[in-house]
Design goal:
Elements (H helix, E strand, L loop, with lengths): L1 H16 L5 H23 L3 H4 L5 H28 L2 H8 L2 H13 L5 H6 L1
Amino acid sequence: MLLSALALAFGTVLMKRLRGLDVFSMQGWTALVSVLPLLAMSMVFEPGGFAQVQQASWVAWAGVAYAAFMSSLLGHGLYYVLIQRHPVAQVMPWLLLTPVLAVALGIAFWGDRPGPAMWIGG
């Protein structure tokens, strides 16, 4: 988790320095650079995952589409725009609210019932 936070911090500082790159170009380069390492990690940590793709339901594919378009393109695209326009120290506290909002929205819209494991993990 700490390595992930460090990578996010490092990447954010590097994104702040980029000039002349629009949101879609940034997303495209990010996808291009990350696809091979992510496929390799999936093969190692999720054995049999590729075989499950053939049996995926429409709900699973809808989840993939949502993650690709709403989370990746819209969410990360807006994040990139904010990083370009505002100081990193102003944007990061809002980003830290993401898990809190995710839990609150899960409780409000999906009827999630947080238990001790979630509270300790959070």
